[in-house]
Every structure is written in C-alpha cells, then in structure tokens.
Design a protein that fits this description.
Layout lengths: L10 H12 L5 H7 L5 H4 L31 H24 L15 H11 L7 H9 L7 H18 L12 E5 L9 E6 L4 H13 L4 E5 L19 H5 L6 E4 L6 H9 L3 E3 L5 H12 L14 E6 L1 H10 L4 E6 L10 H12 L2 E6 H9 L12 E3 L4 H11 L6 E6 L5 H12 L3 E4 L9 H13 L3 E4 L6 H9 L2
Parallel strand pairs: 2-3, 2-4, 4-5, 6-9, 7-8, 7-10, 8-9, 10-11, 11-12
Antiparallel strand pairs: 1-6
Helix pairs in contact: 4-6, 4-7, 4-16, 6-7, 7-16, 7-17, 8-11, 12-15, 13-14, 13-18
The structure holds iron/sulfur cluster (SF4).
Length: 487
C-alpha cells in the first residue's frame, strides 16, 4: 500500500483502495501487478500474428535466440503484421459500433474532412475505403507475403476507415450540449443504488429509471464509468478503471453489466454478494427490487459528501469549431482516451490541462480523460482551465473536424491518447495521424522489437502530412507536455 499514490491521483480512491486491501478484496491493480512482467515477445511485436498454425513463432528481441520464424519471416514483417492484425480488429469494432455490421460500411466524413481524407487515400494508394478493406487485410495475414511498408500502409488505411466510421453515428451533442456529472458525490445519501457498466441498451436504462421512480423506497441509477444515456447522461460515480473500486465500496446495491464490461465486476459482485444482472436478460423491476433488498443489509465504506462531484457538458465539433473561430490565437490541444493501469489513474488528464492552458492552448477531451478533468473542475467551474468535452465515440474525429473547420490543421497542436481501450482506439489514432494530425499515444505499442516497422510507420504517416509519436514506456506527464509544446 506504500505505492498507493502511483495507482491513482484521487485521494478518495486511495482511501477506498486501502479499505479494500484491509478487507482482503483484490481489484484490477492487484491483478495488474501479478501479471508483471507481461509477455515480452508480444509486447515488442515479435510474436507471430499470421494464421498459418505452424507456430506460434517468436523472435528474440535481444538477438540471442531465434531471429526468424519457421518460414523465414523476419522481425520487421512480424511486427508490421501484428500492427495490421490489431487494425483489422479495430476496424471490425468500428463497423460493429456504426450499426452497419450487416452490410458494407463506408466512412461518413464531416464535410470539412472529405477532401483531406481523399488526399490521404491517394497518398496511401489503393481504391476507395469500405469495410471490404477488412477482408483484404485478413487475406494479407493468411501467410507472409508482403513486406513491412505494405503491411503498414494497409494498417493506416484501416485506421482511416475506423476513424471515418466514427462519423456514421451523429454526435450525442449534435443538437445541443449534453450535461454530465461525475464523482463519488453522486453516491451520497441513503437511496438504494444500481450501478450500470458496459454498453447497456438505452431501453433497459429507461426501464430502470422508470422502475426506480415507481419504487416506494428511494432508488437511483448511476453509471460505473460508462457514458450512458441520450438527452441526459446517467450520473457517473467513477471512471472506467474505478468500477471495481466503487463496487467494492459498499455503495452499490445491484449491478447491471453490458457486453463490454468484462468479467471482473460480475465476479466481484458474486464474491461480495451484490446482485448482478447481465443486461441482455435483465428485468428492470427485478433489478430495482433486488437493489432495495440488498440496501437493507449493506454497509458503505464511502463517506457521504455530495460536493464531490464534477460537471461538464458534451459539445459537438461544430460548437468547438465556432469557439476556435472566435479565438483566433488559441490552438487546440486534445487529451483523450481511457484509463490505463500503466500510469497513476488521472495523472495525465489532471497534470496536463493547466500547463497547456498556460501555453495558450484550448484543451479538449473525451472518455475517462474527460471524466478526470471534470472531477478536478477543469470541465466547468475552474476559471484557470476550461476543457471542452467531445463525444467519446468520435472524439478524435470531432477534434480534427473542429480544427479544420476553424482554419486548418495548423489550429490543432495535437491529440494525445492517455490510454487505449482496445484495437479501435489504436486504429483511430493511426487514422488521425494519417489524416494529417499530430498524434501521440502515451502507452507503449507492440512496435519496439522492429526499428524497420517503426521507420516504415513514421515514413508513411509523414507522407500523409501527419506525425505519430509513441514511447517504449508509459509516458510521463512531462513527456506528453513537452510533445505538445514542441512542434
Ligand atoms: S507465418 Fe512463419 S513465423 Fe509466423 S507462425 Fe507461421 S511459420 Fe511461424
């Protein structure tokens, strides 16, 4: 527990971590520590991703063991193929999220980005972009045939597809800003509390709210780190990586979990005797009844303080562009993405905004990074920093759209991803760089086993007018700040 400050910057979270440790409850941080060191071959990109089934072959990153796979594949081809494999997955996720999984999906570029996207495609080579690109990528991963530069170009095309598919669904703030709140204060008081995590269908959320309203006992519905809702978002108790911590705090009386929630929260509920319902089968009235019943027995470890709430509003690319147009001297600095356990939770999103505001940047954000900014008062209420929050499903796309609409990519200082929630985030980051943006990813990528692949990626992105920076370690706040300041 002496290392607790390197787990999260939030003092209340630190107290809850100590409380969970005293009660012998293992959370995501303990699992992370027990996984160290993680697979060094995979982390450096030197575990073969081809589907040949002769392997799995691995190449020794230090040159002391195997330098080629069984078939003669060398490190550059292996690392580039892994990058392509990840981008194939990312594009598939993007197609699924776009709601077009049943047919051909094509990017929906905001009008300001149609020309830059066409120019990028020309530079990368190949025809128009659609979900057919994914099949071509899969075919290229059947057996080694193409060299690293060709595989990297395919990965960038899939990145561009992923970014463009984010435009298929309109921003949740397309018509007007959508307010949100986040922090432990949303759990204050005596109401029975239902926590919702993962992608839960809006109909079920509406049903839960209706059933909660009809209950004789006070019941509320909160989100455990997911942005859930339409016109109004559910109050968020925490960021995504804190969902287990809040569940273990005794403040949650029932949990409903959707497809991307992972296995940990339901397993924790089983351990602690908290009623948990898989969203696909949940009945709203039964969930409310279970929460009321559980509330009678439960004990909270969390001190009530309704003031511990941050607030903000989600805005559209158009609103952000208008603000940039009104302030011609400001440059946009974007810090978005999900929590990662590789750095203290909240470190980058709370350290960077003041420094960037002092450098005359307008800060924008999305995802967990935006929640941390709101918790710190940077998304409203803090006169020193006024970070603007974008729809998490299309954060990078909206940031680039706003900058180009406000005068060009020179208005965009850069987009820094604090963490990657999965392959879709990686593909989007690559797509943003291919579209001409300066992009930085603060968590290590599986590219450090091959300088040839890194060089091929840097060259391909440069030819499109963008840049892509990544580190062989979790980046510090100073490193990301320096990246923003140095152009
Ligand atoms: S493609 Fe080559 S390196 Fe990869 S698993 Fe098959 S034989 Fe091994």
């Amino acid at each position: 527990m002496e290392s607790i400050h390197i787990k999260t910057v939030d003092p209340i979270s630190q107290d809850l971590l100590r409380s969970a440790a005293r009660r012998g409850i293992d959370l995501n941080w303990e699992r992370y520590e027990k996984q160290q060191p993680q697979d060094g071959f995979l982390r450096t990109g030197l575990s073969c991703p081809y589907g040949c089934l002769q392997g799995p072959c691995r190449i020794d990153p230090f040159g002391r063991g195997a330098s080629k796979g069984l078939c003669g594949l060398e490190r550059d081809g292996m690392a580039a193929a892994l990058l392509l494999r990840l981008c194939v997955n990312g594009a598939l996720e993007a197609v699924n999220m776009s709601g077009k999984a049943g047919g051909s999906a094509v990017p929906a570029w905001p009008s300001a980005l149609a020309k830059p996207a066409a120019a990028t495609l020309k530079k990368l080579g190949g025809g128009d972009l659609s979900s057919a690109e994914i099949f071509a990528g899969v075919a290229a991963l059947a057996r080694p045939a193409e060299g690293a530069p060709a595989l990297v170009r395919r990965a960038l095309r899939l990145g561009l597809l992923t970014l463009g598919l984010a435009g298929v669904r309109p921003s949740r703030a397309a018509k007007k800003p959508v307010p949100f709140s986040v922090g432990y204060g949303v759990l204050a008081g005596k109401a029975a509390t239902i926590g919702v995590c993962g992608q839960v269908a809006p109909d079920l959320v509406d049903g839960l709210l209706t059933a909660a309203k009809a209950s004789k006992t006070a019941v509320r519905v909160v989100s455990l780190g997911s942005w859930i809702g339409g016109k109004a978002l559910l109050p968020m108790a925490c960021t995504s990586a804190e969902a287990e911590l809040v569940t273990a705090s005794g403040a949650i009386d029932a949990v409903v979990w959707g497809p991307v929630a992972g296995a940990a929260v339901p397993a924790l509920c089983a351990q602690l005797g908290i009623p948990a319902f898989v969203a696909a089968e949940a009945d709203a009235k039964a969930v409310v009844t279970a929460a009321v019943k559980a509330k009678a027995k439960g004990e909270k470890c969390l001190q009530d303080d309704p003031a511990v709430v941050g607030a903000g509003e989600v805005i559209s690319a158009e609103t952000l562009a208008a603000e940039l147009k009104a302030d011609k001297k400001a440059h946009l600095a974007v810090i978005g993405g999900v929590d990662t356990l590789q750095s203290p939770l909240g470190w980058l999103p709370t350290e960077l905004p003041p420094a960037l505001a002092a450098a005359k940047c307008k800060v924008a954000s999305w995802g967990d990074a935006a929640l941390w900014m709101a918790k710190r008062g940077f998304a409203g209420g803090n006169p020193g920093v006024q970070a603007r929050v974008l729809d998490g499903a299309r954060g990078a796309l909206d940031a680039i759209d706003a900058a180009v609409s406000a005068g060009g990519l020179s208005r965009l200082r850069g987009i820094a991803f604090t963490g990657l929630g999965g392959s879709r985030d990686l593909a989007s980051a690559l797509g943003a760089a291919a579209l001409g943006a300066r992009v930085c990813v603060a968590v290590p990528l599986p590219l450090w086993g091959s300088s040839g692949t890194r060089d091929a990626l840097a060259a391909a992105v440069k030819s499109c007018g963008g840049s892509f920076t990544h580190f062989d370690h979790p980046a510090t706040a100073d490193e990301v700040r320096a990246w923003f300041i140095k152009r």
